Amino acid sequence: MEHASKRYLTPAELSARYGGRINPRTLANWRSAGQGPSYLKLGGAVVYPIAKVEEWEERNTVSGTGEYCGNP
Predict the structure, then answer these.
(1) 8-9 and 45-49 as β-strands: parallel, antiparallel, unpaired?
(2) pTM
(3) What are the pLDDT digits (tens) for 13-71?
(4) Of 5, 8, 28, 58, which residue has the fewest beta carbons closer than 10 angstroms?
(5) How does DSSP assign 6-72, residue by residue?
């Protein structure tokens, strides 16, 4: 699993963080649509800074379906 000093997740690792419920292909679609967590391209590889993933999760956390806007 995640090493404490790890700062970035690959799309596959981010998918695994969510138990495979968000497919890496969905993440690619979100990137092209400007949705989802912020990412970087390092040496041509897409990586997600863990801090940005956690910020995105916090912004998208709801306590009931009435709060859900439907946009990732």
Answers:
(1) antiparallel
(2) 0.79
(3) 999 999 999 999 999 999 999 999 999 999 999 999 999 999 999 999 988 877 656 55
(4) 5
(5) --EE-HHHHHHHTTTSS-HHHHHHHHHHT-SS--EEETTEEEEEHHHHHHHHHHT--SSGGG--S--
